[in-house]
Amino acid sequence: MPLLKSWVTSANDADHPFPLNNLPYGVFSTNGTEERCGVAIGDSILDLAAAEEAGLVSVDDMPVFDVPYWNDFMDLGSEAWDALRARLTEILAEGSADKAVAEPLLVPMADATLHMPIVVSEYTDFYAGRNHAFNVGTMFRGPENALPPNWLHIPIGYNGRASSVVVSGTDIRRPWGQLKSPDQDLPAFMPCRRFDLELEMGAIVGTASDGPITVQEADDNIFGYVLLNDWSARDIQAWEYQPLGPFQAKSTATSISPWIVTKPALDAFRTDTPEREFELLDHLKDCGPMLYDIDLAVTLAPEGKEATTIARTNYKEMYYSAAQQLAHHTTAGTPMNVGDLLGSGTISGATKPERGSLLELSWGGKEPLTLDTGETRTFLEDGDTLTLTGAAKGDGYTIGFGTCTGTVLPALKDPYAR
Length: 418
Ligand code: MN
Known about the structure:
The protein is of the alpha+beta class. Helix content is about 15%, strand content about 30%.
């Protein structure tokens, strides 16, 4: 499909992240107004609460867009999802009869503050990138035991904290934690010294389920995708992770980009998962291309200085799709809720500049990176700003995710000071 032209002319640029082909959903406010749902189009946001009030869009008997989350709309189901997308495409298309009514409802993106697009019901993070798992396993356990024996058979995950998921732009405070380096006899409680990022995609569950679902059903139940940075305290993780996995190392914050790029916007970019050494068991088998060809990048900017691109990779590097992860998640019977968020796991390519974490880029701190400013980094320093970007390149158009940023604030002097 080529670029779909819009009367919002900024959307018609081949490199613009938000053309009519995209229509990502978010929550915004402008100075002194309530948070509400909107859709990005070019350099503007169409105010959907206002559009609903004006009768321009109607998806339910009750208003669903005058709220600061997309959960109510997702809960209406996939017919409503398709109907809204079709209606918005009609309203915003070049030559639309609705232009006169819709144009006054546009808000300049530059005047808007973006908020969390959903209420995160529960958050699960996976470990499903083979290069990442191999690199980290090699550092933690040696190359012979790098991939755990289960890794090629199930997408390994852990239950995270929905309460710690924040929107892009939120500052991230360096955590304290219990650490023990191999040369110490006893652990100490101190600020994290190996604070890191994880470049991931987040999949948002839009349809609830109760009991095991198939990979196809799982794909159907996913509403859309966001960029996700799983902030990680590597020194806390190294001490705590066996045998039950990460806990406090992943509890500081997880940042997501504010625009949900929906599944239909990504349809043209579906790709297969990679070749497998072991055939998956039937309940996890691929049943169509369910990964996506999305270019991803991370920049790091020291405080007050220019940003350096520290990694470039692609979502298609994953070994398991979000649909396979969601299907696996349900096998033992757990209900999934509207608004559940699944982190893909760190996305790393095969070569060094494609690694999606500083742990891998600096090889456990042993090989510092040199930034364009001349400074070096092993892990994050106070004041560093990380920015994740993602875009799928179509025929004369781009499906962009916007950005997912966060700045590291210094650890508190005393986290228990009252
Ligand atoms: Mn992670």
